[in-house]
Structures are given as C-alpha cells and as structure tokens.
C-alpha cells in the first residue's frame, strides 16, 4: 500500500510539472541560436536584435556573470508576443507599444522595460519615382507611393514593423492593395534585400540599414525624420512562477536595463560601422509614449 501511494504521488508530481517542462523543451528544441552553456536556462523571442547580433553580445556578458544559457527564438513582435502569452518563451524584446501595454493590463506579461530604440527609414530607388523625398511627413510619403503605384514591399507578418506600417497607412487614409503592394512575409533583412532586387520602396529600420546598405545596389534613404518613425524597444517577461526560466529571464531584463547593459547597446556596431546600431533607453525615453 505504501508503495502504491508513493507511485501515485510521483505520478501527480509529474502531471503537475509536465506542462512547464514541455514548454521549456519546446522552446529549446526550436532555438535559432543558443548562447552560453550554464545551468540556468531561459528562452527569449525577438527579431532584429537577434538577427543583427545585439542579443548575442548582451547574452554572452550576462551568461558569464550568472552561469546561464539563453535560447534565442527568432520571431517578429507579433509572433513573439503570442509565444509569451502561450508560455513558450520566458522573455521577449519587441516594438509594438499598444500590444505590449495590453499584455501587461491583461496580466500575462510583466516588467515592461524600455531598453532602447532605432528609427525607420523609407528606402527606395535613387530615381524616386513616387517623389517621396519632397514629402513633409511620413503619411504623405505613403500617399505618394500609393498614387504612383511604384512597388512597395510590406513584411505582412504582424511584426512590429508591419504594425507600424499599417498605422501609417491608416493615418494616410489609404488601404493599400494591388500588384504594386508586395507582401514579403520575410524578416527585416530578407525584405530589405528583396526591395533591393525589385527596386521597390520599403520601410527599413535604421539598424538593419546600417548593417546592410553597403551590399545593396538599388536603394538609398529617401525619407526619414518624422517622429512617428522612432522605433522604441521594450522587454517583457512572464509573471513570477509562470515558467521554469522566469526568474533568470527577469534578471536578464534587469541586466539589459542596467548601465552595463545600456553601454553595450550604445556601443554595438561602432567598431564596424563608426556608429551605433541602436540608441539607449535614455535617448529612447523622449519618444516612449
């Protein structure tokens, strides 16, 4: 009888733990990259900061201090937030302010922390067939592109960039459609390269543009500077106890927001390009609405 009771107790514990374990295993099996080999494992979903290497720099410094291991899952802001809500990852870095605030209000995300920013540029062919270089604000630039029916590439993937693009189309009073409006369904770098191949317009983030522009043959910056195009990034993590990696993920958010983390963000890219790819949280705060 004692043996049966023990077995029943073990089964109940396993049933209780399995959902959390399966979530962690699922995230780790789908890692785009893994940084570090420490015993404290956590998972993070993001797009460009991972794609361009900033996340690796932050993770390697953090992991050395905390003996941790980070699983990066490559995902745009929309997919990253879905993963957080479904407890598939412990923490995210995203740029979708309205959705972020809603997640915190609904209680499935906590610790929304400003970590930095970049900005959006509209890039396109040097001949500028839509004449957007003369636009006074970004919605006017979008209207000019629609009126000219010059090719415009959209990520079309519910990412933070796509959400921003849709907001601008809405403010311009236009619902884009037709052959000129090309849905890429790709990440930032891939879509930027597709725009170069097609000689089309695209709203690229400045970080990806700095990384890639020397390899592009048919694009240049044609419009920038509208405050609407400032792109702020926040980290959000699981509520306490929601996932096995929540505690170390929360510490990672603190590290990224610390002076050491912010210094890494400010300096990232300067050695290769002579300028940083991201602004820090102090700069971004003026645009953090």
What does this structure look like?
The chain has 289 residues and is α/β, with parallel strands linked by helices. The chain folds into two domains: 27-118 and 232-287, Periplasmic binding protein-like II (D-Maltodextrin-Binding Protein, domain 2, 3-Layer(aba) Sandwich), CATH 3.40.190.10; 120-230, Periplasmic binding protein-like II (D-Maltodextrin-Binding Protein, domain 2, 3-Layer(aba) Sandwich). The chain has 13 helices and ten strands. Strands 1, 2, 3, 4, 5, 6, 7, 8, 9 and 10 form a ten-stranded mixed β-sheet that branches. Strand 6 (152-154), helix 7 (160-172) and strand 7 form a beta-alpha-beta unit. The radius of gyration is 21 Å and the shape is globular.
Say which CATH homologous superfamily of the largest domain is assigned: Periplasmic binding protein-like II
Averaged pLDDT: 91
Strand content: 15-25%
Order of secondary-structure elements: HEEHHEHEHEHEHEHEHEEHHHH
The biggest beta sheet reads: 10 strands, mixed
Q: What is the CATH class name of the largest domain?
A: Alpha Beta
Q: What is the secondary structure topology, with strand pairs?
A:
Blueprint: H1 2-29, E1 33-35, E2 40-46, H2 48-51, H3 54-66, E3 68-74, H4 77-85, E4 91-94, H5 97-106, E5 110-124, H6 138-148, E6 152-154, H7 160-172, E7 181-183, H8 188-198, E8 201-205, H9 206-212, E9 220-223, E10 230-237, H10 246-257, H11 259-267, H12 270-273, H13 281-284
Parallel strand pairs: 2-3, 2-4, 6-7, 6-8
Antiparallel strand pairs: 1-3, 4-10, 5-8, 5-9, 5-10
